[in-house]
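Changelog note: in this version the structure field was regenerated for every chain. One regenerated record is shown below for reference.
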Amino acid sequence: MNTSVRAGLSGVAAAAVALGVAEIVAVVTGPLSAPLLAVGGVVVDTVPGPVKDAAVRVFGIHDKTALIVGTLILLTGYAYAIGVLAARRWWIGVAGIALFGMIGAVAAMTRHDAGPMAWLPSVAGAALAVWVLHRLLGLGARPAEEDGRRRFLKGVGLAAGLAVAGGAAGRLLTSRQAVQQARDAVVLPAPRQSPPPLPAGVQVADVTPYVSPNADFYRIDTALYPPQIDPSTWELRIHGMVRNPITITWEQLLRRPMIERYVTLACVSNEVGGDLIGNALWLGTPIRELLDEADPLPGADQVVQRSADGWTCGTPTAVLRDGRDALLAVGMNGEPLPVAHGFPVRMVVPGLYGYVSACKWITEIELTRFADFDAYWVPRGWSAQGPIKLQSRIDTPRKGTKRAAGTVVVGGVAWAQHTGIAKVEVQIDDEPWREATLAATVSADTWRQWSYPWQATPGEHRLRVRATDRNGQTQTATPAPTAPDGATGWHAVTVRID
């Protein structure tokens, strides 16, 4: 192992120690003050809309993991270079680490609700990294004899152990301070209204479950670390262009009349045939009733929702008061909201994409006007209003699969939330469209499964699907990207029949 390699590894070990120590300090100053999450949060907030859309398209629900991994890879390369340069000019190493600490500290101070000590994790980590780098460079510069190599490798191993222990302890302590215990103690109120039991035949074989389990429900948001909100301290403020501003506590919210409704939610980043969509049983209080109590002023055409992490979305006021089951939700599939899906409270609005309606970790509602305020995604190129577009998807057989000749059941889902699906058709190659059999459904606010028995013949075949909603509108064949207001086109798969 030559001197440059030892110096590079010294830089990487010092950076790892900095991150591990920062995680420990962030237990006190807040998880979002840790440099990795702070810098990642700045990237999420500043990245152009097309870049974010591309990340979701490539990585789906793992876009945040990809961001963190990518940041770690870049940091590793940076730290390696700093180590090599520091071995030649020590001041370069000090300057490089100082820059790392400054970037992390500034990023942490810009986070929503950053405390006065949010800079501390990055600075403390950087300070220790300077000492570690100096020690390891001293060991690495010694003659390349067996004893010298052992000392250097032992030093790197100790640094790595400190980094791993610090990072793990920080995450563990943070999770212990988090809200999981409070969530487990929540007893949800009984709803005043519940939907009837799921009808027979609601599920088609080999099609995605009609009700999406909480653990499998898609998650797309800007939070690298879900806000940890103790419900005992939660409040919702309704203000702005209203005659009667309201502040509601958690206890007051749970005493309000609750209803349960199945509602399918979809992300505007969902491509044709994509899986950024899910259906769940939500428990909450009608937002219409809260708005009526607040009494919006004339002209207040937008309801701006703010999350605990500062994220905003804007929903048309008229939509929230038109009779649909828009909910301020506290429960999901019979249990309190998962932390990753908005605990303790979130919005659920049938018929609108999540970026304009489904605010998680909600703490504020402001009545305003679309002309006066653009929510988070609007300046990034997305439409101010996002009604969900009519879509359908083939779940079985999947693309590229092989099946034996004979009867092959083609099945999938179609959705036109708050309008409902009236018909689904399947096309085999260039043959005429054939009407599929619609499965039972609970309401127009959920997706609907369908099936079509195909007498498959040997060869390669292309299958396509299109849907028609209850207003008589048939899904357009014209392809469109997800931006600025949702993808369109017919989903198609190619299968091989033997």
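Spot check on this record: The domain at 391-497 is CATH 2.60.40.650 (Immunoglobulin-like). DSSP finds eleven helices and 19 strands in the chain.
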